[in-house]
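Troubleshooting: if your tokenizer reports a length mismatch, compare your output against this known-good record of 755 residues.
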Amino acid sequence: MRKKLSGILHYLIPLLVLAACIILRWQDVPLVGQLRMNVFDTYQRIAPRDFQDVGVRIVDIDDKSLAELGQWPWPRTRLAELIYKLRVAGAAVVGFDIIFAEPDRTSPARVVGDWPQDDNSAEIRKLAGNLPDHDALFAQFIDGVGQIVTATQLTNGKLGNVPRQVGNFSIAGAQGRNIAEYIPTLSGAATNLPALEDAAAGNALINVTPGADGVVRRVPLLLALDAEQPLIGKPVYPTLSMEMLRVMQDAPRTMNVRLSGASGAASWTTSDGVDAIRVGQLTIPSDATGNMWVYFTGHEQQRYISASDVMNGNLPEGALQDTAVLIGTSAAGLLDLRSSPLNPVLPGVEVHAEMLEQMLLQQFLSRPYWASQAEMLALVIVGLFFIIAIPRLGPLWPAVIGVALIGGAIGFSWWAFRQHHLLIDPLYASLATILVYLTGSLIGFMRTEGEKRQVRGAFSTYLSPALVEQLAQHPERLKLGGEMRDMTLLFCDVRGFTTISESYKSDPQGLTQLINRLLTPLTSCILQRDGTIDKYMGDCIMAFWNAPLDVPLHPEKACESALAMFVALRALNDEREAEAKAEGKVFLPLNIGIGVNTGTCVVGNMGSDQRFDYSVLGDAVNLASRLEGQSKNYGVDIVIGQDTAVTVSERFAVLQLDLIAVKGKSEAVEIFTVLGDLDLRDSADFAKLAQNHDAMITAYRGQNWDLVEELLAGLRENTICDLSVLYDMYNERISAFRKMPPGPEWDGVFVATSK
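Known-good structure output:
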């Protein structure tokens, strides 16, 4: 149940993370929008728009102009002279990025109005009242030179005068609906003096709306004023660059707004926003709320002409011929400074100039109508891929594929920007899918670590540390259920344990300590040689090799363990004997017998639904247990099976013991003993012993009793080990066979009657 829940969470938690990312993108929260803008800013910084001179100029009221012509605001007569000189120099249209909201304080009547009221100034005030008003003169010049566009700004404040609407709009794609339904509507306005607006060929917005971070990226092409007018409803005003474009073309006052869903506009839905605006012969694309993306070139000095140079006649011949001129300011004290993706500080008038250049070049940035849907779809597809793939493939391949997909998305976005000036955001979907990937990987890691802890906990007392770590790193090797494997089994039992137990009748705790003291070093001998402890059965140890992980040379390692266990036992007995002498107690040595066998077994998790153990079953297991029981009967420490002996005989001193049918089995097997390691095997004494021993076994099975007895007499004199119990057993058999011969068909098999 716990494993099933873990598997569900491996999918569910990343799915919840993906859902949260989708919701954040769907709601387009500020953080998501800012990330998207940062991507588009980076693209512009890497590849800004190439500057092409299309005759857009900025007459700059800069610090130089203020120094030469006086502080701002200038008299309107000076501004009248400025526009006159611009038109004479060949400017096709002149637009102000300045609002003249208050009367000129330098008009004669206003100047003398501030003087003391006395008899000496009365005549002067009378004469001044007959002089022309500067605002009236400025209005006359605006009307007289023509092609002048004044500026207005819509605000969220209170409405005073309603700005004059010169350029207006018709709508295509939503019969009977007003443009104001699709664009922002503001409540207030900063306007020029009515006389100035009435004299101008156009009146336009200078609204430049920066983002939350203060950077200008989009500028409204049109805005609505919340002031219902007869017949037209809420008036809609064009931006300065678009109005100048209309005046420059001598285009009709009515510009056409095309909505998405109209003929020629593409969208998945109909009438869901502005698509483009037609101004004379030119079309300007727009986002759904009437904004234009500004594709900046960065500061180009070629655009700028100081106003003082115009007034002083310091212009090259033809410098302003057929140009569109914007009058604005870069002087820091006049506070008309903005930020763009390319420049932290630039004059606000430059934004309008760059927009007008784009309109004339018909070179626009645009965010396709399908961009949001495509980005969302990419997020869903890649996110679901990670959710499904990570639990199945692990973190590596999904990461490789994910990097390729994200790299492809970034590459496609960059290609679309460079080749088609399209704005497609690869960042949010990439970051969101990376978050999903990390979540899935983290859960997989935690799940894997949990499995490793479980494996370590389950096997740390049964396996060697090296095998435990291998299994923890690759838990998939631990197959649930059973599997067939070629294995080597070892059984170890304490001889005479009943007698030892009786001596501890009054001290059961001491008996437990003794058993633990014995089993600990014996267990270490097994674990140090890559063995697995299957179980402890009182004073008995059951161990195996080659499961759950592969163990090369497992028969040899089992035999090495068996020999090492006797070395450890002798050290323990020496220690206990010394302790017994020191305490004046009777010393009872511990003795063990070991059986080792190799064969095919079933190994795996076995038990019930409530409790199970990793264990092994099979005929080879039963035989190993029986071999351990025969070690006492044959008077040897270790008894090994035939398959084990065949494998290890080149590395250990091995002697055949008998051909025996152990209890519970009808089939006879050859059994052997291991006397020592390779050094003993290669010794001359063992070679002589092995030769005579094998000859004795051959003579025994050939019923040559005299030769057997002769050989046995010589074998008893070997100096390698004490095999007297074994040889006594053969002498007893021969005595019995002399009285009752086994017959000519006897095959030498001894049928065991005890375990």
